[in-house]
């Protein structure tokens, strides 16, 4: 598997939206146990083998795949620009694609930081993004991608002496992008991460969040980007984060994914240890799981954020030993693993495959068989 797949998992929408949470490491022990009890999870189930799991995105996006391949082949920014133009005002999808393009540029820069001897590559990794900005300075997509790229660079090393300087530059580019695309919420969603990193005052953050909501009041990705600010790891508390998530869920319109937001708030504030079965069968967790199931039933099947909810549901359902439900989510999401919680591990594909193995083992212990699973197709 191309090494790009392993980095972009933390940067694609299942990625930068959740960068503040990337300190969490809870899956390893359960994953090892899962691999031990189900050594060959592919047998009869039709799941994608570990080495073929795509860690760039939470779900398929053929147009994005093609654009990335062309950019990497030619080092030309135009396929990326055309991709964003064709995305139009589908703000959920545009946000996800901007993040992934920015992540690709950041990965290339990390691989070839000005090495003229890099075989088959440009003198500087990610030069296509720099060229894009130079040759098309009024292209809103280029500005949005550049701003997100700077956030990636800053959050790569929050302890760096350049951290604040890079984030301040990112804020400048966010505001430039906002002028180039007056109706787009994307620059302001990117600025949510900037404001969090710079420690903006709650009143200032609320003002920024209000600007986002005016443009995209029910944007699931925006809510996930905003949620960490109010968490206890950043500038708030568990109570504030959960209240934010509950308000969004209760005020969600029909066919929205926002009723799943409390599941992400619960995940953010789970204890680091002693995650026993009873915790995942508590009223709080069960209510959050039910909210996520409801959101998935009501939202369009092709909603760009649906795979993110399914991936996190798999994690919770396996811990709660609700294996049949976990298997149903796996059926719908298998093949792509670029999402929380897998992106917190060193190998997202391995983290996901371990939980998939646990689900299969539990399913079979309850009497399920590959034939039963296939019969549900």
Secondary structure layout:
Elements: H1 3-8, H2 28-37, H3 62-74, H4 78-87, H5 91-111, H6 127-135, H7 140-156, H8 163-180, H9 186-198, H10 202-215, H11 220-226, H12 238-250, H13 261-268, H14 277-280, H15 283-298, H16 306-319, H17 323-333, H18 348-365, H19 370-375
Helix pairs in contact: 2-18, 3-4, 4-5, 5-7, 6-7, 7-8, 7-9, 8-9, 9-10, 9-11, 12-13, 13-15, 15-16, 16-17, 17-18
Structure overview:
The protein has 19 helices and no strands. It has 377 residues and is mainly α. 51% of the residues are buried. Mean pLDDT is 85; it is low at 1-39 and 115-123.
Number of strands: 0
Number of helices: 19
Major sheet: size, sense and barrel closure? Answer: none
Task: Classify the oligomer.
Answer: single chain
Global Rg: 20 Å
List the helices and strands in order. HHHHHHHHHHHHHHHHHHH
Shape: globular
Distance between the termini: 28 Å
- Mean pLDDT equals 85
- Tell me what portion of residues adopts beta-strand conformation: under 5%
Low-confidence stretches: 1-39, 115-123
| Class based on secondary structure composition and strand pairing | mainly alpha
Helix content: 55-70%
In short:
The protein is an all-alpha fold and 377 residues long.
Overview features:
19 helices, globular, disordered N terminus, mainly alpha, single chain, 377 residues
